[in-house]
Amino acid sequence: MKNITDSFLSLGYWPSARSFGFNTDILATNPINLSVVLGVLVFFGKGVCASCLLSDLLDNRKQRILKTIRNSEELREGAIEQLEKARARLRKVETEADRFRVNGYSEIEREKLNLINSIYTTLEQLENYKNETIHFEQQRAINQVRQRVFQQALQGALGTLNSCLNNELHLRTISANIGMFGEMKDIK
């Protein structure tokens, strides 16, 4: 990197700047002097109002801190209120849950008893149906046995009659029956 004095020398602005010394050219030194004077004024001028400026800065900072603390306190109070509301809702929900649990258990017990009673009723009905079916089947079996016994007795009687009857006995039986029929007619 080039030296600043070398760049100014090459442009021809400060021909005698190669050595340290005072520059008596007022036009060349004026911007430098003005910047130094302004720097000194600003630096030392702050000291005069520095206490005002510093107190203003401190007051502003204090006000911001107090405002932040107030906001934090308000937020904390709001959070505490919300927490209390949430706790109240939780207690309410827990109470309702306990009530539902108790009601649910009693409802379950009631339903269980209803189901047991219903099952007993159904079992009684099934027992009655079974007994009726057994009775019906017994009656049907008895009727079937009666019919078979009657048919067998009838077949046996017919077989006996057919084997015992001859033409003469047959004619006498018919005559006797006709005679009985005639007597019955007279009685009426």
UniProtKB/TrEMBL annotation:
GO terms for molecular function: proton-transporting ATP synthase activity, rotational mechanism. The chain crosses the membrane at residues 32-54. It is found in: Membrane; Plastid, Chloroplast thylakoid membrane. GO terms for cellular component: chloroplast thylakoid membrane; proton-transporting ATP synthase complex. Residues 69-103 form a coiled coil. InterPro entries: ATP_synth_b/b'su_bac/chlpt. It is a single-pass membrane protein. Belongs to the ATPase B chain family. In plastids the F-type ATPase is also known as CF(1)CF(0). HAMAP family: ATP_synth_b_bprime. This is ATP synthase subunit b, chloroplastic.
